[in-house]
Design a protein that fits this description.
The protein is mostly helical. It contains two helices and no strands. It has helices at about 5-35, 45-75. Helix 1 (about 5-35) runs antiparallel to helix 2 (about 45-75). The protein is elongated.
């Protein structure tokens, strides 16, 4: 509808996306800590594989969290086109 400003919807979408990314990071942290919080080594056992995937999950969710927050900044500072 013309004349309405759905700016609040953009905030809700960004907040939900950030919560999903943070939830994935928490799940990855739990997996990493259950296998022993240490850097993944060259061992071919299942513990090393779980550590590697947990480590990748934690750091990729941190990266995507930063990306979501960076995409959220223009919503705060720029006015929507009317």
């Amino acid at each position: 509808r013309a004349g309405t400003n759905p700016g609040w919807a953009l905030h809700i979408v960004r907040a939900v996306t950030l919560l999903v990314v943070l939830g994935a990071g928490v799940m990855a942290w739990r997996q990493w800590s259950s296998a022993g919080v240490q850097e993944p080594g060259n061992a071919g056992d299942s513990g090393a594989r779980v550590r590697l995937l947990g480590w990748l999950g934690v750091f990729s969710s941190a990266l995507f969290g930063i990306v979501v927050m960076a995409q959220w900044l223009p919503v705060f500072f720029l006015d929507m086109c009317t």
